[in-house]
Amino acid sequence: MKSNLLSGFGLLVLLAFVTSAPACPPESKGSSQDQGSAAVAGDKPGGCQHKSGDASLAGDKAGGCAKKYPFAKPGSSGSAPESPVEVVLASMPSMKYRVGTADMCCSKTAEETAAKTGSTIQYVVADKAFESKIEANVALAALLEAEVDKFQTVQFSVGGKCSRCPIEAKELAKQANTQIAYRVGGFDYPEQTKAEMVSKLVVNALGEVKMSYKVGDASFCCDKMAGAKAKETGKAMTFVVGKDETCCQATARLMLAQAKLHIIIATAAAALAS
């Protein structure tokens, strides 16, 4: 069963019939993984550029704007979520691009507008504007890591509102005259035992999402070994997540958080459909 659930992001296409609920509001801005900081190099003029296998990072989409959908899948129009799985993904924090007083969801449109108006681009995450895209990536990664932490655990859901406290959930259910559901990965399950099982599946699936490293043609699973090789050869260390590569640590951290959210939501949706 696990191999079917982990068959890649193609699950996003196959699960259009699954019902979902909006993701709960973030409870924390904490980070589950400290892999990057604002003081890192890369993704700057003349520096290392991100190479994406699915054009899914930070709201960018090749050939168009992903609008409210920050994880546009290859070949999609990107104009709106196309399945319930994508609806959950669309509720995740994302980056916008500000030129003057206008906020845009597409970096390409922002670049064109900035060039025409002679303006600069600011990067907006959670209503905070950054001059540096690296710093914005760090902020966005931290928000997505908090979602990863939350989405892999069982929460109580009542009328679309989530709580980790059973007493609070019971009170909400009483006030709304409805039943408590159990949410994992952005989806509600009527039975707590099923939700707990899905949580275990999600945790197992997360174990398959890892970052690796490259120095020249050599690949490593350990950043220390890769770092030693980079120092020895004088070559840059590249961070790899799936088909995505970058030499920017902040961007790599963002890539990893996005990949984890993809697999969490796809796994939870598959379990709901089974």
General description of the model:
The strands form 4 sheets. A 4-stranded antiparallel β-sheet has the order 4-3-5-6, covered by helices on one side. Strands 8-7-9-10 form a 4-stranded antiparallel β-sheet, covered by helices on one side. Mean pLDDT is 77; it is low at 1-78. Helix 5 runs parallel beside helix 9 (249-273) and helix 7 packs antiparallel against helix 9 (249-273). It has 274 residues and is α+β, with helices and mostly antiparallel strands. It is flat. Helix content is 39%, strand content 18%.
Helix content: 25-40%
Strand percent estimate: 15-25%
Global morphology = flat
Outline the low-pLDDT stretches.
1-78
Question: What structural class results from the helix and strand content?
Answer: alpha+beta
Task: Record the strand order, biggest sheet.
Answer: 4-3-5-6
The number of helices is: 9
How many beta-strand elements?
14
Q: Helices and strands, in N-to-C order?
A: HHEEHEEHEEHEEHEEHEEHEEH
How many separate domains?
A: 1
Rounded mean pLDDT score = 77
Rg result: 20 Å
The N- and C-terminal alpha carbons lie at a distance of 10 Å
Name its key features:
single chain; 274 residues; alpha+beta; 4-stranded antiparallel β-sheet; 9 helices; 14 strands; 18% strand; disordered N terminus
What's the short story on this structure?
The protein is α+β, with helices and mostly antiparallel strands. The chain contains nine helices and 14 strands.
